[in-house]
Structure formats: C-alpha cells, structure tokens
Write a structure and sequence with these properties.
The chain has one domain (2-121): SCP2 sterol-binding domain (Nonspecific Lipid-transfer Protein, Chain A, 2-Layer Sandwich), CATH 3.30.1050. Helix content is 50%, strand content 25%. It has helices spanning 2-19, 68-77, 80-88, 98-121, and strands at 28-35, 40-47, 51-54, 62-67, 92-96.
C-alpha cells in the first residue's frame, strides 16, 4: 500500500507541476502526511526531481496533511482549482515557511490568471 501511495504522490506532483510549470525548477523538500485509519503515513518529496520516499522529512520546508481517502480521490485527476478548493475548505492543510507558502500561492495565482486570459482570447 505504501508503494501505491508513493506512486500516487509522484503522479499528483507531476500533474501539478505540468499545470504550473513555473514551480518546476524550485528546490524544495515537502513532507506529506496521509492520515488513515488510526495511523499516519509520512512521505518526503524532494523537488525539482520529484523524488518520493517513505520518510519523516525532518528537513521539509512545507508540510502537507490530509486524509488518505481524500488524497486517493484527488491524486489521479485533480486539477489546480480542485487543489485550491481543498486547501481553502480544509480538506488539506499546508504549513511551513511563510515565504515558500506565499511564493507558491502567488505563482499559482499568476498561472490561473494566464489560463483564464488564454481561454478568453480563444
């Protein structure tokens, strides 16, 4: 099951970076905590090479926490607006260094604006 989680995390990160390519070169370590029935699985995601390992990620600058069932549903085909909604309404939580959090939020916001204007011109 942990291998499945690693694969899902890797797929989710790659899909996210494909939608927001400006974040792709960013060097960052993210800790992912997936809460299940009575336990928490912890993973370390190292960017930009998208290296996922089952680890506590003590050196993580950002930590993401969500329920395992919710993550499973989101990982395969959620788009950036779905992730924004999940963080807005508390299904997923992020904590960590404020500068990184703000930078990521700003880059995502700019990407969403560009995507909206592209649709408007077409």
């Amino acid at each position: 099951m942990a291998e499945d989680a690693k694969t899902l995390i890797e797929a989710a990160v790659r899909n996210f970076l494909a939608e927001v390519p400006a974040l792709a070169p960013m060097k960052l370590v993210v800790g992912v905590d997936l809460r299940g029935r009575g336990d928490t699985q912890q993973f370390r995601v190292q960017l930009p090479e998208v290296d996922v390992s089952k680890d506590i990620a003590a050196d993580a600058r950002i930590r993401v926490d969500m329920r395992r069932e919710f993550f499973n549903a989101m990982a395969r085909d959620a788009k950036v607006p779905d992730w924004i909604e999940a963080f807005t309404y508390g299904q997923a939580k992020a904590s960590g260094v404020e500068q990184y959090m703000r930078l990521i939020a700003n880059v995502i916001e700019k990407q969403q604006e560009r995507a909206r204007t592209r649709k408007a011109h077409q």
